[in-house]
Amino acid sequence: MAADERRHVAVLGAGLIGVDLADRIGRSPKLELALVAGRDRDSLGLRRAAEMGHPTTPGGVRAVVEAGPFDVVFDATNADSHAEHWAALRPTGATLIDLTPTGLGTVIVPGVNGHRAASYRHLNLVSCGGQAAIPVLHAISKRCAPTYIEVVSTGASASAGPATRLNLDQYIATTSAAVRTFTGTRDVKVMVNLSPARPAPPFRVAMTVLADGIRPALVRTSIAAAADAVRAYVPGFKVTSLAVDPGRISVVVEVTASGGRLPRHAGSVDIINAAAVLLAEQSAAALR
């Protein structure tokens, strides 16, 4: 794809997620990063984006609207601000990829329903835990009828910025709702742990599924296929534990960041940003 055919994109938010997005987009042959917008002129994130050679602004969403139009805008801010951002960007015609746990927009998990993304302009990526768990849980739900699902995400405290901490309640609510939608299971519990341990632990998601009529071989095959699908765009994704017993399935996945500027323990950032960039690149390919 020639440079002038690349999708013109902007990143809204200059925290850990936004800076990593800038790095990924800068390495994409299908996307051209035209702006990184934050709110604090002196923030470390905007300085790092500028050091990478990307245009930056402290003007927030207003600056993005004024500098547009953009084909795609990534919202890497916080859930409390996202509705305002969509209201400002919707009239511009941009596709907005929401990396905050608002639950607004069409929920997309690339390994499950990524093929639907091109039909919508407001995409929601649930949460990092949702991106890790839902492909596996969706695969299980195709082989049995879960009556209860529990998801426990554990991440390094060092990989959780202020917006992540601010949005923990929304994270739990949005992830729970998405698990219900993709599995058809009403009884869902989601928990989040931020670990200050040193060395920092990898991002880990433990899932427990209660169901009748479990067929172990089919469940194992489906989980392996789901993991392969995620690994196609998140190389550090792996199933580290799997037990299939009568009435109960226990699965643990880990995500380690690979490549780029992220430390290995920041798998939570890696998986949601990889999903976001993949969707933007696929939309670029669809327009060829």
UniProtKB/TrEMBL annotation:
Catalytic activity: acetaldehyde + NAD(+) + CoA = acetyl-CoA + NADH + H(+)
Keyword Metal-binding among record annotations: no
Family the entry assigns: Belongs to the acetaldehyde dehydrogenase family.
Protein name: Acetaldehyde dehydrogenase
InterPro entries, per database record: Acetaldehyde_dehydrogenase, Acetylaldehyde_DH_C, NAD(P)-bd_dom_sf, Semialdehyde_DH_NAD-bd
GO molecular function annotations of the record: acetaldehyde dehydrogenase (acetylating) activity; NAD binding
Domain of life: Bacteria
SUPFAM superfamilies: Glyceraldehyde-3-phosphate dehydrogenase-like, C-terminal domain (SSF55347), NAD(P)-binding Rossmann-fold domains (SSF51735)
Active site: 128
Residues where NAD(+) binds: 159-167
E.C. number(s) listed in UniProt: 1.2.1.10
Organism: Streptomyces finlayi
Keyword check for Magnesium: no
Organism placement in taxonomy: Bacteria, Bacillati, Actinomycetota, Actinomycetes, Kitasatosporales
Residue span, Semialdehyde dehydrogenase NAD-binding domain: 8-120
Keywords from the named record: Aromatic hydrocarbons catabolism, NAD, Oxidoreductase
